Amino acid sequence: MLFTIIFTWAQVEAPHYLGLALTALTKYVEQYFNPATRATASMDDFYQALKLMLIFFILNAIIMLFTWVITSRFNAHSTNNMRENLFSKLQKMTIKYFDTHQDGKILSLFNSDLDNIFNAMNNAVFEVISQTALFIGTIWMMFRIDVRLALVTVASTPFVVVLSWIIMRKARKYLDAQQDEISNLNGYINEQINGQKVIITNGLQEESVEGFKVYNKKVRDAMFKGQFYSGILFPMMQGLSVLNLSIVIAMGSLWVVDGTYSRAVGLGLIVTFVQYSQTYFQPLTQLTSIYSMIQLALTGGRRLATIEEQAEENQVPTGQELKSLEKGVKLEDVHFGYNENKEILHGINISVNKGESVALVGPTGSGKTTVMNLLNRFYDVTGGKVTFDDVDVRDLTLESLRNNVGIVLQDSILFSGTVADNIKYGKPNASQKEIEEAAKQANIHDFIMTLPQGYNTEINDENSVFSTGQKQLISIARTILTNPPFLILDEATSNVDTVTEEKIQKAMDAVIAGRTSFVIAHRLKTIINSDKIVVLKDGKVLEEGNHEELLKEKGFYYNLYTNQMAFE
Amino acid sequence: MQILMAHFKNYKKEVLSAIISIFIVAFVAVWQPRLLQYVLTAIVQDNQVEVRNYGIQLIILALVGIIAGIVNVYSAARVAQGVTSDLREEVYTKIQNFSFGNIEKFSTGSLVVRLINDMNQVTNMIMTIFMQVFRVPLILVGAFILGIITVPRLWWLEVLMVVLIMGITAIIFKKLGSLFDKVQNLMDKINTQAKENLQGVRVVKSFNQEGQEINKFNQTSDTLNNVNLKIGYLFSTVIPSFELIAYVIIAAAIYLIGGSILEHPSDIAVISSYVTYIMQLLYAIMIGSFVMSIFARGGVSLKRIKEVLETQPDVVFKDDIPAEELDGDVEFDNVTFAYPDADKPILKNISFKVKSGEMVGIVGATGSGKSSLAQLLPRLYDPTEGTVRIGGHDLRDVNEKSLRDTVSYVLQRAILFSGTIASNLRQGKADATNYELERASQIAQAQEFISRYKDTFDHEVEERSSNFSGGQKQRLSIARGVVGKPKILILDDSTSALDAKSEKLVQEALEKELKDTTTFIIAEKIVSVMNADKIIVLDNGRLVAQGTHQELLENSPIYQEIYATQKAREKAGDIIE
User: Fold this and answer.
1) Options 1.10.3720.10, 3.50.50.60, 1.20.1560.10, 1.10.10.10; which CATH number does A2-308 get?
2) Model-level pTM?
3) Is the CB of residue A209 less than 8 Å away from at least one CB of chain B?
4) Which residue among B360, B405, B429, B463 is least packed, with the fewest CB closer than 10 Å?
């Protein structure tokens, strides 16, 4: 800021000395050619002014260097901060947000919005500050030198401001529309290409292109208008600046001619004010030339701000530490709905004693996955409570709760990195031996050893090193390595062959053994082997007991079992 | 650049008016200081008539500048938007001609980025071309020449300035290019990390790895920051040093003019415009470096777009084959297939024949090549060796539309598009009547839940079809597959989320309603295909046995083994679906 002021001062002073130098030179010439004053004619004033001008110029450049270095540091670091803050904010946000917002839209914050902001900062922040300072500085200097000419110079300003305000409003409207249309097009393309197999096999390519054209045309029209309105600001300002210049010259020379100013003074003044009129308009011109950039950055800023406003997970910093599980886990009269007006669980009671394995079965939509979401607080109950060793989960520190709860999800997720990185994901400091041990228990070690680079093979979620079943084994190994006392397993619906299924079954047995566990079960063997089966239907516990007991009841479970229905 | 040239042709008028107007704008910019100089000279000489004349000229020049500027923006925006959206359409159409192999190679995400982000960079570049590129050399040359005309004896000052500045530019831009490359790569990496983090948000949270994720992300972000800083510092030194050079030159010029003012007293009036010319030179060079940085980025994007356009589709349908009705006979003749870039074939020497109307089961372990085999039928890929024939025709010699009408492929992963149930089902047959939709959903056992919606087939399918369960999605996807009464239907494990009872109902309905349809059912469980007319057993990419369930039980040791294990486990109550 200080630099900016000095910089502006230097920039405003320099033309002043240029004017002084010219006045001095003119005086010298006049005196020299006038025989009466020739003897006293001296170039000293000229050299003096020139020297000062040069000093201010150099000062100008040096200050500019400093300011640029500082601002580019500031811009890079603050964008970096914004990016890192955004990411860590995302880490703190609730699952609910991610369940209800498209990944693609969140990602565009990193790709496009932060980029827009960085661009605008690089080109605009320094510009806006220095141009505003320059604007004020110029006005001050002009009025100090000559009030009359200064008034002439600023006379057209109200007109210019109103005109540009009208255009800017239009531009803003269309730039906003442009962003909306781009994100619609983005959504369309994303969906189409993700479903490309359907498009190819149904021969829908032409239809897809037709649909694309509609979105593309909207983008084209909106972008054209946005660019046109934000684009014409610059040439208009430039032209107006020249017009203003002519006014200054006209008035100046008029006053020289009618004798208000002496010729030498008048000429110097006109030259100075020609410079000032340009410096005066420069801020307006420059700011309008980067207007669309600023506008896009403001849009990006707004979008970032909406993320910043999102609720965070309550970490319960003052809560109790869950050291390990001593008694067991209970759901007591649990009510829950994702939306306020639609309750999904209607008063559920389930208890899992330490060392027990409980299987949760029931048809689609009965609320099994929802129960899982409540156990490690992806969501919080709306009524009743979930307790670990009789302590409400909301009174435990979130970190200690999740450290004690291991989860194997139905859809296995791999991260870019090596196989080893993926297995030790929950325990980054695990030794190679521990990793291999976990992989052996999960029945995936042998396969990993057949890979060319073994545990160091680079993988990601998209490439096909692992089949669906093998991915699941990796995620089981991941959980085994962290050795959690309480386990939630969401069995995958069987899309795997019998050999892999056998392996998964064994891995599941290995991971369940000796732990307290909660299984959303699809395999009958898992169900039969569990200590307790809970049948869930329409958000209520329908039946509860072990396999034999439930069969004897001849109720819903019995029907499921005898009709060979899936435990979806 | 050739890619752009081809599209510029369609906007000749706009291109022309953009170029003409930018010449006018440049002329105005260069001529204006000269007029200013005339006015000032006239003032010095006390010539009021000339002052007025030149003053009016100056005003006209300004008005011309405004009009030309607006025309320029209008034409440039037209060209930029026109060319970019045409190019985007060309790329999208090209992608629609890709085989699935092509798309996998690029990855969906990258294609989307190319169509959106890279296209925006191209728009910027085109705008820059028509608003700056033509102007910069004009102003550069114009200011240079007029500067020399104004004070001819100081020509060497200007030359010195240009040489100095060009030298600095050359050194710095070489560095800048490689830095921009790094930025692009790091942006990719940031994108991937954030994407994976969002995808795996439940894993991250349940393993308490938020901190670790932040560290990982920050590492990449900091690396990007360092590159950005380097770019920033480069620019920070460039611009002030340009200015310094210009300032010193200006001071030197004034000093020299002042020193010889007695020989050339009229030079007083030209000092101001001379200074303006030098500043214009500087300005042009600075804009030039700005333009070059946009070009550096736009160039990278164009290269990425070109990559898409120059990719040859793996599978190309011949244009000159007339559409004809195919029947449902299928023949695999010694087919070997390897995925592009794979070193080992996934299918080896597969031969079998299927008669129209038969039901064929394909069984085998994960990775044995079942889906790969099925994907050859709708020609998602071409075999590496051997021939696939439908109705006696080599698939490579079949009209695309005929093939699409004949073969219907229901995928393992049910994909629906946002819209309505009807719009999704009609993807299988564009002109399907309501009756046909109902019939298809009855076959797929979807009619029951569809009829429960008030708006039945007009019920909305939300983004990512989040308002349907897995089983419902599969049913809709099957309905889409059968609505067109295809001659050949492939169900690629597409009933995995259906219970055993519904699966059986679907099969029975297929047998009854689509009697003449050749149906391929890919299944993990033999139970699912026991009633098939023919079962094909794959093992490690080889066809190891084929026949009916009974025949295979008698002849095929592998089949016997699979069946025995499955049966044993079923008895133990293990397999229930």
Assistant:
1) 1.20.1560.10
2) 0.74
3) yes
4) B463
